[in-house]
Amino acid sequence: MIVDYQREGVIGVITIDNPPVNAISQGVRAGLMDALAALNADAGAQAAVILCAGRTWVAGADIAEFGKPPMMPHLPDVIDRIEASAKPVVAAIHGTALGGGLEIALGAHARIAAHDARLGLPEVTLGLMPGAGGTQRLPRLVGLAASLDMITSARQVGAAEALKIGLVDRIVTGDLTRAAMQFARELAGQQPRRTSEIAAPTVDAALADSIKASLTATAPGQVARPRAVDAVIEGLSLPFDQGMAQERAKFMELMDTPQRAALIHAFFAERAVTNLPDLKGVPARTVDRIGVIGGGTMGAGIAVSALLADLDVTLVERDAEAAERAAAGIGRMLEASVGRGKLTPDRRDAILSESFRAVGDYEALSDADLIVEAVFEKMEVKEQVFARLDAVARPGAVLATNTSYLDVNRIAQATGRPQDVIGLHFFSPAHVMRLLEVVVADRTAPDVVATGFALARKLKKIAVRAGVCDGFIGNRMLAHYRAAADAMVLDGASPYQIDRALTEFGFAMGPYAVSDLAGLDIGYLTRQRMAADRHPRDRVPVFADRLYELGRLGRKTGRGYYIYDDKDPKGREDPELAGLLDQVRADLGIAPRDFDDAEIVARYMAAMVNEGARVVGDGIAARPLDVDVVLLNGYGFPRWRGGPMHWADAQGLPGIADDIERFSRQDDHFWRIAPLLRDLAAKGGRFGDLNQRSVA
Ligand code: 3HC
Ligand code: NAI
Fold first, then answer.
1. Which of the chain's termini has less CB crowding within 10 Å, N or C?
2. Residues 500 and 526 in one domain
């Protein structure tokens, strides 16, 4: 039974049990209808509670049903049925009450929550809006401003805040079921308090307009949030039933948008990345004690990430003095976490006195379960570090490198235990960014791979499996689409126009603003490293070398592509850049031409998708969805476009293949179509087809 009805004394107990998260499938909807009928037919019942089995209250509509023909009974009708009950119904909330789950609770006549429960309407993160009364019942219960905040931010409200704003009536620290039964007994025989009958708050059009204006800045290009604001405002000036009807109409319109499809692809892709056949049934090694080598940008971030996840961390630097410097930096980062409310001062003190130490001696790593190396990006240095690790690490310890580009197979050969060596490629800042590429070398043991994924889960990160090549999935693709942008600059486009066109497309930042943030020295050093392997027809971004030679390294020097000063801490365009670019083009004998924004996006995206196809075709990424998850979580790709491979499917692969063919007429060295893209485009296939096949 997905939904069960029993009676205890005068209370009808309705229990939803649909693991893992009690999503509202057709079975749950039908079951609730039957349970309500049973309640109202049960002469011995004077009130009811709705409980959920398992780890959470209802987490929302069943997302797997989206995009398929709707099946009766519809959720708004189920909730109307709950609200219409002549006997008071109490929702007893634990875990998370999200989306349609919260809407069920809003349809009940009273709400009681466990002290650690969380409540929210996250529909906009899926390109939707509340579609079962959330836009109409929530404002009646908590007021206009609080409801618009919850609906447009998708924020989860904790139980204490929910009580304060009137979203729940009571909070319980002890036994939720007992307290809910008691609450129901108190309400037994009373007239149910129906949310839809509460007077609607006064419509404040100015508030709605200001929220919509701010959404244009914070969520540009996204349709669901402003639509949700419209639904709230429009509905509140109508009778309740009509308000519900217009909400449903807007919800169904959003259901048909490409943004909804993209965001739900992202949701499932982020969960499917761990679903790999070679990990099935493979137990991870136990990891409690972590070693980190190198306490620079990445080592410090990795250490903090592990400490925040309650792991024990030993950091090794080059000597005691460097170790002390690294420890001071980590102390400051933990302090900032205290400032942001992520850590209590007591916990910080306990971490620093018990769980963390920084030393200059590799021997301290002898009992570590997993060691992550984050020293300079130089093969000789990494080889030395791994040879020393081989001497000190205990048998069975996982030895990981955080290298961005280097050959993990070669690093593994520096040890006598290549089966224990893996790449764990964190992103900067490592205690903030959620992506982790788990780089599997030729001889990495399966349980070491499983350990990489298990560690990611512990650190609350999204792990994606990657194979060994220069740059793995993300940085390899970045090198390619970045080269497409640089070629456009050489041929006449302005970096500012490229940044604008791509932020307009939805990227968090354009590539030249990103260069300034990372530092132009990083790209310069990478070009130096790759110079020996360069093909004569590779186009070198000489302008970037010039900026480097002028000491214009980006934000850290106040000037790179943009100028940064007190007046414009976020950067402004530099009028002198055009002259530098003209000079470079003249030196190379290039006659500059104009690019429009559409061509900029087409070239950048075609390069990204083409290299993504190559990465999948070469087996570096397991499936196209893995590429999407990397670009979404590590490279600022707009989530509402679903990732480059999903975006390509939505555009149509033949069009992208044609673009590449057209671009190749000017440069058939750079623009060579990936075999996978060519084949799929020719036979009417989609990248998405490969997601299905390989997961099954
Ligand atoms: N529908 C279907 N499946 C769902 C689901 C949903 N609403 N929510 C989670 N799942 C599935 C996941 O895909 C995953 O499946 P898998 O094990 O096969 O990969 C499994 O449940 C567990 O999910 P998580 O791994 O995410 O578990 P966590 O414990 O980390 O998180 C959660 C639990 C906070 C509930 C999180 O899953 C979540 O945020 N879910 C989505 C909630 C949501 O967006 N609800 C709104 C839906 S839209 C709606 O309700 C419309 C309404 O207004 C009409
Ligand atoms: P960094 O220069 O900030 O830090 C390197 C640290 O390693 C320094 O503190 C140095 O003293 C220490 N170190 C050097 N040799 C050592 C040795 N033999 N033993 C102990 N400590 C030693 O470098 P960063 O940026 O932290 O990069 C580290 C690694 O992480 C590199 O492989 C890099 O490619 C990779 N990486 C960097 C990212 C970034 O955005 N900075 C992102 C992802 C990976």
1. C
2. yes
649-663 pLDDT, tens digit per residue, is 999 999 999 999 999
Q: Do 213 and 294 fall within a single domain?
A: no
CB of 268 closer than 8 Å to CB of 628:
no
**In terms of domains, do 300 and 326 share one?**
yes
- What ipTM describes this predicted complex? 0.95
Report whether residue 6 contacts ligand 2, using a CB cutoff of 6 Å.
Answer: no
Is 262 part of any domain?
Answer: no
Asked whether residue 373 falls in the same domain as residue 517, the answer is: no
Q: Is residue 272 assigned to a domain?
A: no
Please work out, in degrees rounded to the nearest 5, the angle formed at the alpha carbon of residue 154 by the alpha carbons of 153 and 160.
Answer: 100
Rounded to whole angstroms, how far apart are CA atoms 598 and 478? 20
Nearest-ligand number for the alpha carbon of 231: 1
* Greatest Cα pair distance in the chain: 92
Task: Provide the number of structural domains found in the chain.
Answer: 3
Domain at 234, CATH number = 3.90.226.10
Phi, psi of 343 (to 5 degrees): -150, 140
Residues 457 and 350 in one domain: yes
Q: Which atom of ligand 2 is nearest to the CA of 381?
A: 18
324 is catalytic: no
674 neighbors 614 (Cβ within 8 angstroms): yes
123 catalytic per annotation? yes
The Å distance, Cα 295 to ligand 2 centre, comes to 7
Whether residue 377 has its Cβ less than 6 Å from ligand 2: yes
* Domain span at 243: 3-256
Among candidate residues 466, 493, 526, the one where a domain is terminated: 466
The answer to whether residue 540 is domain-embedded is yes
Burial level of 603, CB count in 10 A (0-12/13-18/19+)? buried
Q: Catalytic: which of 8, 65, 83, 123? A: 123
User: Distance (Å, rounded) from C-alpha 471 to C-alpha 405?
Assistant: 4
Active-site residue (options: 83, 103, 247, 317)? 103
Q: What is the DSSP secondary structure assignment for residue 341, as one 8-state letter?
A: T
Ligand 1 pocket test: which of 2, 16, 21, 453 has the largest number of ligand atoms within 8 Å of its C-beta? 21
**Nearest alpha carbon to residue 33 among 45, 21, 41, 22:** 41
47-52 and 96-98 beta bridge pairing: unpaired
Tell the residue nearest (CA) to atom 38 of ligand 1: 59
Query: Could you tell me the two tokens for 483?
Result: 């080269």
- Please report, rounded to a whole number, the percentage of residues in the chain having pLDDT higher than 90: 94
Residue ranges of E strands in 131-182: 157-158, 170-172
CATH of the domain at 299: 3.40.50.720
For residues 459 and 487, state if they share a domain. Answer: no
Q: Same domain for 519 and 460?
A: no
Q: Is the CB of 320 under 6 A from ligand 2?
A: no
> Residue 629's domain is classified under what CATH number?
1.10.1040.50
- Residue list, ligand 1 pocket, CB within 6 Å: 20-21, 23, 59-64, 75, 96, 98-100, 103, 122-123, 126, 128, 130-132, 134, 271
The pLDDT, as a whole number, for residue 67 is 81
pLDDT of 549 reads 97
* Same domain assignment for residues 10 and 137: yes
Of 445, 466, 487, at which residue does a domain stop? 466
3-state secondary structure of 470: coil
pLDDT tens-digit map of 2-56:
999 999 999 999 999 999 999 999 999 999 999 999 999 999 999 999 999 999 9
The strand pair at 370-373 and 398-401 is best described as: parallel
134-143, 241-250, 271-280, 551-560: which has the minimum mean pLDDT?
Answer: 271-280
